[in-house]
Amino acid sequence: MGGFTEAVQERVRAARAALTAALEADDAYQVAVAQDELDDAVRIARAHGIDDEPGTDVGAGDGAGAGGGTVTGER
């Protein structure tokens, strides 16, 4: 795996962790910031054919949010 791929995947993981923390803290501003970061990281991953979510196909979903929709804290 190349350095760019690893960096993008790490950015996605870090953004997901930040979003989870913001949701747990019930901090609406941090949720918005973290969601934007996650959306951007996932967009970059998908644009380069990088798997942004283990166990799923690249490009799954409609591009809004990590799993094809906005993260709400419930899964």
Please tell me about this protein's structure.
With 75 residues, this protein is mainly alpha-helical. The chain is 57% helix and 0% strand. The protein contains two helices and no strands. Helix 1 (3-25) packs antiparallel against helix 2. The radius of gyration is 12 Å and the shape is elongated. Residues 55-75 have low confidence and may be disordered.
Terminal Cα span: 30 Å
Order of SSEs = HH
The helix tally amounts to: 2
Rg calc: 12 Å
Largest sheet: none
Beta content comes to under 5%
Assembly state: single chain
SSE class: mainly alpha
* Mean pLDDT value: 79
Range of helix content: 55-70%
Low-confidence stretches: 55-75
What attributes does this structure have?
single chain, 57% helix
Task: Please outline what is shown here.
By secondary structure, the protein is an all-alpha fold.
Topology:
Elements (H helix, E strand, L loop, with lengths): L2 H23 L2 H20 L28
Helix pairs in contact: 1-2
